[in-house]
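Data card: per-record layout.
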Amino acid sequence: MKRIMIVEDEALTALNLKANLQLIGYDIAAIESTGYGAIQKARQLMPDLILMDIRLADDINGIDAMKEIIKFHHIPVIFLTAHSDEETLKDAKVIEPYGYLVKPIDIRTLKATIDIAFYKHEMDKKLRAAQEELKAKNDLLENINKDLYDIAIQLHKVNFEKEKMLIQQSKLASLGEVLSAITHQWRQPLNAIALLVQNLDEIKLENEEDNLKIQNTINETMQQVNFMSLTIEDFKFFIKPSEAIVTFSIKKAISHIINLLQSVYLNSNIIINFTCPEELTARGVLNEFKHAILNIVNNSKDAIISASQRGLLDKMSMGVIDINVTIDEKSNKIISIRDNGGGIQEDILPNIFDCYFSTKGEEKGTGLGLFIVKKIIEEHMNGVIYARNWEKGAEFIIKL
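The structure for this 400-residue chain is written out next.
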């Protein structure tokens, strides 16, 4: 049975309330006439509801007494008053009471007001419980989100390091091609240096003309040595890991790769044609872009050699790799790399950019080349790359 505490300084009114409450089925927890007494009894007895007179006998009124009571327990209150003026009701609203009863109070109004108060209080308890549960779940969700964010950051770092390793691994896979180019480029200057040194041995220092010959020979020798030194610098720059994002000339970047490889390609009966406006630039890691172009061009070279070996290319015909850079109507830079190597099988065309996918066999291919190219172009440079076949071979399109 619900227990109700009456706080009323008029004894007759208090007794009348007690009788009516008992008639409608409630227990009386206590009857108090002062605000201080109400605070103490509420703390001791913890009633289910308080009927609180606003005007009390001591120097603390019912509103102030309830302010103290709700600090330690949320007990529903119905205020009793003989005054229904605006100022009194405004002060009482601060407590958020569950009802008001204006004296004198009839039993039907008393019962209805208390029933509504208990119902509202029960709904409030459920609402508070739901809010607390929601807050707990929100706190849990925030903690989970924070943990997920931390995990995502760690995964990003791990993936970033993994990508760097893959790019470097792909570069190492290309070293054979680059070293072959350097070896070929060094043969001629080394032979020239050997001849120049022999000439020095034959020159007799008899006059100024002989001194001039020696100086010319030294100058020519140094030119050859400088050429070889630049080749080594190109090689070092190619294999050096780099993370600096810069704006660079597309023409200079691609020309650098062509100059490095062209003599080797000519030995394989392959020529590279290249056209690009001077002013076109791109933004990214320069070394990565060069590596991407090198991988695509090497794929074209391998396709041409394979086509020649299979008799698909006339032995008297040159292998051709055309590299054309243009700009479209939306100011995108379009890099087309096209070969006459017979093309890519249509059934494997959608898979050529997959990691570890290779048509060259384990001995010749790692399956990383085009996978790394796609990562560099699309993830590091915000571009697009795709491949298609044309009449005589394959074409790779890069849009930046």
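Known properties of this structure: The longest strand covers residues 319-327. Residues 299 and 369 are 9 Å apart (CA to CA).

See the next section for split statistics.
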